[in-house]
Every structure is written in C-alpha cells, then in structure tokens.
Amino acid sequence: MFQATWQLVKNTFLKNERTISRKIVEMVLALALERAISKWEILSSYVSKIYWGHGIYGIESASIFYFGKHPSLLSMAEAAMLAGMIPAPDLRSPLKDCSRGKTFQARVLKRMVEAGFIDIETALWVLKQPLDLRDDGKKYADRLLYLLSFSK
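Below the sequence we write its predicted structure tokens.
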C-alpha cells in the first residue's frame, strides 16, 4: 500500500486515537481510496495538506514560504529539500540550521538515484546547487510562532 494513502486517510478522515479498530478502519479506507483515485491524485492531495514546519500547511504555502515561488517553479534542488523535510519538518527546517536542508536533500537525491529516476551525475550536480531560501523566512517564522503562541 502507498504510504501517502495511509497518511492521507489518517490525517483527513480520522481522529488521533490509537486503537486497533482505528488502524483497521484506516486500512480499509486506504484500500478503498486507492481503488477510487490514482496514486498521483493521492500524492497531490497529501502534499497539499501536510505540515511543512513554522505553522505552514500545504506544498504551495511551503514553497512560497521557503523559496518565494510557486511549486511549479521549484528547481530539483529545492523540491528535494522540501521532500526531505516531510518526516519531521520542524527538526529538518533549513531555517533553523541551513546544513539540515542540504543533509535531507542529499538523502532524497540518493533515493532518486536508487529508484532510477536520476543518475548519480545529476544528483551530484543538484546537490552542489545553493538553496536560495527567502531572506525574510526566519523572521517571518519567528513572528508566526509568536502569534500562534497567543492562540492556544
């Protein structure tokens, strides 16, 4: 089963309870979803809803927040960095430590080589590209977290 399907079902349709019955419902819904729509539609929906750190949800908001541009304009280097953030966006944020962005970008590129999507030369070339993060991203993130602290 496609991991994004499971996560999409978990994040969209169900509560955060940890029970066996919930896991069974997740599995049934995930299988039904995979039969109803394409993997591309599932992935698109998933990245449009997930958390990207600093109070940001959805790939479009993340792309604009980190790079100041629409996702369709991201370079492979920028897209790989964002993909590397997915499992732990707050810990992997390049705004907290710039080297984190490159570390997890490299992991994504390595997996792309292993899966045959790109060759090693392309991966190494992409890895050498600088990550042009928004200059005001860190200041914006700090202000956003400050404002969110009042909403609790």
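The radius of gyration is 17 Å.
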